[in-house]
Amino acid sequence: xxxxxKSQNGKRELSDSVVLITGALTGIxxxxxxxxxxxxxxxxxxxxxxxxxRELETELRAKGVEAAFIKTDVRFEKEVESLVDQTVKxxxxxxxxxxxxxxxxxxxxITDQTAESYAETFDTNVLGVVLSLKHEVRVMKAQGxxxxxxxxxxxxxxxxxxxxxxxxxxxxVEGITKSVALELATTGVRVxxxxxxxxxxxxxxxxxxxxENYDGLISTVPMGRVGRPEExxxxxxxxxxxxxxYLIGASLGVDGGLLA
Amino acid sequence: xIATQTGYPATGLSGAVVLITGALTGIxxxxxxxxxxxxxxxxxxxxxxxxxxxxxxxxxxxGVQAEFIFADVRQEKDIITLIERTVERxxxxxxxxxxxxxxxxxxxxxxxxAENYAATFETNVLGVLLSMKHELLVMKAQGxxxxxxVSSTLGIRGGSGxxxxxxxxxxVEGLTKSAALEVxxxxxxxxxxxxxxxxxGMFDRFAGSPESKERTKAKQPVQRLGRPExxxxxxxxxxxxxxxxxxxxxxxxxxxxxx
Lengths: 260, 259
Prior knowledge:
Shape of chain B: globular
Number of domains of chain B: 1
Order of helices and strands of chain B: EHEHEHEHEHEHHHE
Number of helices of chain A: 8
Helix content of chain B: 40-55%
Radius of gyration of chain A: 17 Å
Number of strands of chain A: 7
Strand content of chain B: 5-15%
CATH superfamily of chain B: NAD(P)-binding Rossmann-like Domain
CATH class of chain B: Alpha Beta
Oligomer: heterodimer
Distance between the termini of chain B: 34 Å
């Protein structure tokens, strides 16, 4: 995408934006961090792995943008609160937040699921988004502007055998997004979803387990190929920009036609 | 697919050949201006000759390569001519925005007639079908292309007093998904953009009175109508190569209306 230029109504450019990304160290989160950096944004990278975080921070700075890694586990409110407060303390505000931290949990039939496998998945995928929204919105409401993008999945819209817990968690995020979008509709803060389909990430490889499963899943994609993290990232960047302030509570499926 | 050096998809909009039906007013007009700003070459289509030539001249004055080509989307021969002349003039067709639509006659289902049904469906549904048919014939031969059909929030939800319009826009959603599946493996994308209440002449006619317009505004989660430019920017993004994995989708731009 070309650099966002100042629009007629004086909205903020991406090159002058502070962008917070959770789950920023791999896959879609990492591609999103690099895409915002290409637009000149200041990028705050949240994740759990210190060393990988510092490496990505260095990589972004080499592109000439401001970047900061802040170690965060989104399952714990004090860490999310600290992430948001540190971001505001260092960079003054949060213009865009991408709530991307997520886990695939332990795929398998419902009869194999446990309260533990449920909690393992929902604590990150759902509670993590709730806590992130809570503290991001606290800052953005006070600012009077902001754009939040929650990352769900095709499985936020349809079911899949052997993925009940993951599917349930992503459906939950779709519901949270719609409700929070309505809560904030008059505040200048927007909340939307990007719902990636099969995307070439470590998570997809873990999710499918075997090459046969992986190929089998890709063969169901109407476009006949796996998506690239960069393709998802561009949709996230678009929603984070000020190009359509009328776009709220929407779920943008980037899935090669899986939901058609 | 065009990719930048970094692996991120480029929009490919500069020099792209874009066809827009219903391009002379409202969302169509805003869409032409938005593509014009990106350096695309544009065919604006519509039924009113004078307005069409004036709009093409306006785009040209902005430095945009633009041409008006008359078409009534209900007539297949008009669509055939429109597509042929577009390809003659600019050599190919990269992006098509099927935006021509009518609100028909708003009113309760008990007051609807076969005539109003036909008047609404011929433009909104048959028009999109015929447009896609001939656009895809060109795009399939090219091995690339992107189509954006302009639907409506009423393509997803019902609306009291809007049964025929709502049904026609639901049909567009169905056409979009099926066409997307047919051409997905060919590198051609088909999507819908579904606007909610937007401040256009069509909306004024739809609302019927200033009071009714105010009531709609008050019911909007964002407490305002959308601007045509806000829809246009989404159409430009969805149509561009910046969204290469996006197909068969309906992108709702409605200020939260359908939530």
